[in-house]
Structures are given as structure tokens and as C-alpha cells.
Amino acid sequence: QYAAFGRTLLMMYLVSGNHDYLFKCSRLIHHFYNYLHYDSAANSYSWNYWSINSSGEDISHGAIEVDFAYLCYHQGLFISHNDMQRFANTFKKKIYAAPLQCKDKVDGSGNTNTYLDQTGRWINVSDFDKDIYHIVADVFIERALTSSQTSSGSFLLGLANLIY
Q: DSSP letters along 111-148, please?
């Protein structure tokens, strides 16, 4: 929830130029950053849902946080190119399990494919690894051909992200 609010604050700053919004946004991105766990073997990040002791974040909510980081990166706000590469690696090395199979949690744990339509919300990290675009496109092409759920908001948002 804080990441969605952070995205809103950043947009309000960009529209208004009011630095109070930017200050609050920067505090939120620092908060998120402080709870990232770095995996040197995969050069990736993972993080928990709520606190250090809670379970891993699911890829649906994780997409909101990564989008917040992506927006901050593009505004030069704390998040570096290396950080974005690590988020891309999180998707490619932890979430992506096999063709048309994605793990439910950002650390690669949990079930598989519960949140498959949410992979389209991770497309922004394909700026840092083009393979991710193709992984997500394969998921959406297969879902379009085989699923009756293709009118869901999540599917349509993911499809729009791919087209964009």
C-alpha cells in the first residue's frame, strides 16, 4: 500500500513541483530499499510482505513495489541502474520457473502460477533484460489462446503493458 501511495506522491510532485511530495516519496522508497534482501548468487532482491519475519512478498504486490522503484529510478530518486538490474534478475532468476510457469513469491518460493496474469505488471524490468519481455509475452499469448479469463483487469493491464 505504501508503494502505491509513493507512486501517487511522485506523480503529484511531477505535476505540481511541490517538494513536500518528493520528500515523502523519497522516505517511502528508502523504507522499501531498507527491507530488500540481496542474493549475491543470483544478483537479485527479495523482500517480505510485511516485516523482516513475515513471509515473502507475492509477485502481485511485488509488481507495485517494483513499479514504484522503476518510477523513482527514472526520476533519479535513490534507485540505481544496478538496483533495477537486480529487480530484473528477481523476475528472471527467482519468479520465472520454466516456460509458462512463474513462482508466486518474489523469492522464488510458494506455489506456481497463482498470480500468472500479474507477470504483465513486471514488464518494465524488461528494460534491463529483454528476455523478460519474451517470457511475459509467451505467458500472455498462451493465456489468450487457452483461458476464458482474458477479460480480467489483470490480464488486460498486462496485455496493455506488453503492447506499450
A: -BSTTGGGGGGGGGGGGS-THHHHHHHHHHHHHHHH-S
CB 29, CB 9: distance < 8 Å: no
The pTM (predicted TM-score) of the whole model is 0.95
Alpha carbon distances (Å) from 157 to 117, 123, 131, 154: 9, 11, 20, 5
Name the phi and psi angles at 143, rounded to 5: -65, -40
Do 132 and 92 meet the contact criterion of CB atoms below 8 Å apart? Answer: yes
In angstroms, the Cα distances linking 71 to 3, 4, 43, 74, 128 are 11, 11, 21, 5, 14
Report the chain's mean pLDDT, rounded to a whole number. Answer: 95
